[in-house]
Specification:
The chain is α+β, with helices and mostly antiparallel strands. The protein has helices at 27-40, 42-52, and strands spanning 6-11, 54-65, 74-84, 88-96, 105-115. It has two helices and five strands. The longest helix has 14 residues, at 27-40.
Length: 129
């Protein structure tokens, strides 16, 4: 089942950029992680860990960089997710620059569900899926 597209505005700060003035490539992963936390909710993620004893770990990432954002940009992080099989969730994230005609960065992340002992386990039914 596909989740509706979620939007998160992310301000690009000077500290996010590298020596050439564009966002350092690894920071997009931070923006995408923040977007997932907004979709699921920090309280829900905490509850899942403390009460259900489960969490999610990134298993695989496919990412493309097409247009580097710069200091001062306000990015629109667009995210969707879908459950794929019993153990895996696929998230698609796109970072859009102001006035962009295509995504500046696009990533597909595969996450798996783990228990506190880091054993693979089936994904329970959650509202965000």
């Amino acid at each position: 089942m596909d989740f509706h597209e979620h939007h998160l505005e992310v301000q690009v700060y000077y500290e996010d950029t590298d020596h050439s003035g564009v966002v350092y490539h690894a920071n997009y992963l931070k923006y995408f992680e923040r977007a997932r936390e907004h979709v699921i909710g920090v309280k829900e993620l905490s509850r899942m860990w403390h009460e259900d004893g489960i969490g999610f770990a990134v298993y695989k990432i496919d990412i493309g960089y097409f247009d580097g954002a710069v200091f001062g940009d306000s990015l629109d992080i667009r995210s969707t997710c879908r459950k794929e099989g019993e153990y895996k969730i696929i998230w698609t994230h796109e970072a859009w620059r102001p006035g962009g005609r295509k995504a500046a960065v696009k990533a597909t992340l595969e996450l798996v569900c783990l228990d506190k002992a880091k054993r693979l386990m089936p994904i329970p039914k959650y509202e965000f899926l």
